[in-house]
Amino acid sequence: MTAWTRLVVGFLLPQLLVASPVPDAAPDSVKVEQRDDESVDYQSPPYYPTPHGGWVSDWAEAYEKAYQVVSNMTLAEKVNLTTGTGFFMGPCVGQTGSAPRFGVPNICLQDSPLGIRNSDHNTAFPPGITTGATFNKELMYERGVALGEESRGKGVNVQLGPAVGPLGRKPRGGRIWEGFGADPVLQAVGGAQTIKGMQSTGTIASMKHFIGNEQEMYRMSSIITKGYSSNIDDRTLHELYLWPFAEGIRAGVGSLMTAYNDVNSSACSQNSKLLNGIAKDELGFQGFILTDWLGHYSGVASALAGLDMCMPGDGAVPLFGDSYWGSELSRSILNGSVPVNRLNDMVTRIVATWYKFGQDKDYPLPNFSTNTQDETGPLYPGALFSPSGVVNQFVNVQADHNVTARAVAREAITLLKNDQGILPLRRNDSLKIFGSDAGGNSDGLNSCSDQGCDKGVLTMGWGSGTARLPYLITPQEAIANISKNAEFHITDSFPSDVTATSKDIALVFINADSGENYITVEGNPGDRTAAGLNAWHNGDDLVKAAAQKFSNVVVIVHTVGPILMEEWVDLKSVKAVVVAHLPGQEAGNSLTDVLFGDYSPSGHLPYSIPRSESDYPDSVSIINQPFGQIQDTYTEGLYVDYRHFINANITPRYPFGHGLSYTTFKFSNPTISEATALDSAYPPARPSKGSTPVYNDSIPSASEVSWSSTTFTRIWRYLYPYLDNPQSITASNDYPYPEGYNTTQPEPRAGGGQGGNPAIFKTAFTVQVQVTNNGARKGKAVLQLYVELPSSLGLDTPSLQLRQFEKTKELAPGQSETVTLEITRKDVSVWDVVAQDWKAPVNGEGVKLWIGQSVADLPIVCVVGGQCSFA
Ligand SMILES: *[C@@H]1O[C@H](CO)[C@@H](O)[C@H](O)[C@H]1NC(C)=O
Ligand SMILES: *[C@@H]1O[C@H](CO)[C@@H](O)[C@H](O)[C@H]1NC(C)=O
Ligand SMILES: *[C@@H]1O[C@H](CO)[C@@H](O)[C@H](O)[C@H]1NC(C)=O
Ligand SMILES: *[C@@H]1O[C@H](CO)[C@@H](O)[C@H](O)[C@H]1NC(C)=O
Ligand SMILES: *[C@@H]1O[C@H](CO)[C@@H](O)[C@H](O)[C@H]1NC(C)=O
Ligand SMILES: *[C@@H]1O[C@H](CO)[C@@H](O)[C@H](O)[C@H]1NC(C)=O
Ligand SMILES: *[C@@H]1O[C@H](CO)[C@@H](O)[C@H](O)[C@H]1NC(C)=O
Ligand SMILES: *[C@@H]1O[C@H](CO)[C@@H](O)[C@H](O)[C@H]1NC(C)=O
Ligand SMILES: *[C@@H]1O[C@H](CO)[C@@H](O)[C@H](O)[C@H]1NC(C)=O
Ligand SMILES: *[C@@H]1O[C@H](CO)[C@@H](O)[C@H](O)[C@H]1NC(C)=O
Question: What is the DSSP string of 532-584?
């Protein structure tokens, strides 16, 4: 498809017509339901003005450099850097205008969190959910480095990832596979490690989607409809959904992307409480905030609320050459409705971030096009009449990243069940392989745009969070390369003529897909509305048929998230279940690495596997209510995934964190020691802010944005900062600023550094455990630490919450490693909504730290102020 038809058919139509009800093919449509309006109690209070960036010492040098430049910029240059040039108006999925006088190029922003989207000679890494399942911090970092290197090599300034929201509140949610798992700490560690890795290469990471984007359907506002409102109470926001964002900011993330939806009936891209109050004040965010694509819904209001960049620049209806910002931002500066100091802060944040990651020195310009795979083509496809040139240089950025991609996919592989030690397979075992998920895409590699289909092995979900596969090693190819005794039936209907002997082992491949809302696959509009939590393509029937014929069945599952296994998991012949998550390009090799025993599996579930969908709270179902704004109220509060199952006394099929190995591990000598004393319930007072740049805040001369001052040839529909006759605009002195605009905010007591008050991140307790491989094969162990808080805090709190984890190195039989798990003040605190601060039990009294290999397997308990023992 051309860029144009892809835009219209693929993105705009579904977004604009999203008001039409999506057919609900779900047999148990109870999980796709309508809701009453519960918004009354959920409002977003105003929070103004925007705190200026530059007060954190880590960023001081970058802000000083930015100051030298921004103080000399004209209004046109400043507006240029805040506004995208328009949809399809450049090589990247979005780019800002430039400021050539200062060497600042059009800043290129490109998807995705798992590799460079719509490009070539790039690596298609496993997505977030797979990375989370490794529970391996070093690998998370290494993958981030590789991602950043590829972006840099293609000339991408800002890579649109990692995704740390959705958190996975809704098991049917379409994009839960882009994040790292249904727990704030797993999500936070995955996100922060990715950010650190990516940014070590000079690429700016963009953490998204801020916040509450837990379902795909009805996420977006347009001229016809309003996106849903995620109504989240303050404590739940802080203890669950905000936690990963706070850790990303603490890791120094350079940019933050807003979500499409509203929070408390105020759109995320113009919600002053979220942007000014929480991100920029409480969490001390120093980088810049941008919209999601076409998620910009107002001009003055979004600027005042703390937005710094709009993407791809277009206004309500894309490609008409208008914007809420661009020339309208110039106008609102000249007419006084956006204060000059707000624009100066916007631009300073952008330029400072560009300096912070060294992009002023030898950073490549884009050498690829997101719009076409041809070598030459229009430079601005959205312009209709555009100059042409070389748009793709086909630069190979893969280096040896396939090694990392394979390691992540391999270490994520989660063995749920292994009766009679049927795994690992021997190389001479007689194998019968079933399922289209073992093979390739029958229509060809990458034949579905943005991976919008489920054909062959499922390597990733669909939508903008994808990349083209440079090549794909299918399970079939990898198995065939190892086994001379394998018979393949790459079909989802069990063949009637297959013969079975008692020596045969049947490997049955099934999958479950989901993705972003602008593509519907097999009746699923992003969210799994039609498929529910079941395997696709009658996968349950395929397993059952194989289990009837063969006495040894191994089920291999590629899935975006929780999947139901009840129809077959207890069948006598189903001996093993392997969840290989979404493996990316190295699907086959990573799987055979484990199946044939070269490596022991060491992945653990990043969510629970339920017995029934009705085991979840009703409030986490997909809401289908096409008329009026959907009110999605988070009534389950903190009780999502395992927090809910434990609270409701429901035993899931497989608990969060579960994962077997081919070997076994013994834990010994657990110890706990105190690091920083928790001698008060609240942390020590925050430090005050450092200084921020001070500019001349007078309204600049209108001539700086006058078309008559320019000499270049204008490109039709391109977004510029210029106006005709701007001299006619006069500044009004009585512009109705939003309530509270004029006040100076007191510094929030929970703030004081990136991520919050630095005192909450000090290590409070250190736990050490000796891990010994007491089995017969080499392998890696994962230690998970869950906190149990005392009732003395007076708040209803989930009884177990993951707060730390570590993976050992590969231990040979008999070998030991001492693992250290550090717990901070924040880890044992609750969010006190009255004090607006983190509150811990004094001296940690009553806090218990549970350690083990899943939330349901915690043999060690350490009592703060006491000792560790075996429970
Ligand atoms: C949303 O409303 C709830 C309930 O009033 C409140 O606790 C919370 O702070 C609000 N959050 C935002 C971001 O406005
Ligand atoms: C602005 O530019 C001038 C020369 O072009 C330079 O000397 C000065 O340092 C720059 N910065 C400021 C803050 O004036
Ligand atoms: C604004 O950006 C455009 C490119 O997007 C560039 O052509 C123009 O020169 C820039 N304006 C200024 C004043 O730098
Ligand atoms: C100033 O311009 C902006 C952008 O066009 C507009 O939204 C706003 O209403 C104007 N304000 C005044 C006071 O004219
Ligand atoms: C493209 O990639 C090459 C190799 O990484 C790099 O040297 C170059 O600067 C990039 N950009 C352009 C516009 O050539
Ligand atoms: C991985 O990349 C290396 C270096 O580019 C290459 O030699 C090797 O063949 C690749 N592996 C696979 C499985 O394609
Ligand atoms: C595979 O080889 C082992 C010995 O190496 C033998 O015991 C076993 O029977 C063989 N299995 C098959 C299916 O041939
Ligand atoms: C096939 O297997 C051999 C030996 O295990 C290995 O060296 C080779 O890389 C494999 N080839 C592919 C394409 O995976
Ligand atoms: C501040 O900017 C205004 C408008 O450009 C200008 O008239 C004034 O001289 C500047 N003030 C200083 C102190 O530079
Ligand atoms: C701020 O308040 C002062 C005094 O009440 C008033 O004169 C001024 O116009 C206000 N400014 C804004 C931006 O509301």
Answer: TTSPSTTHHHHHHHHHHH-S-EEEEEEESS----TTTTT-TTEEEEEE----G
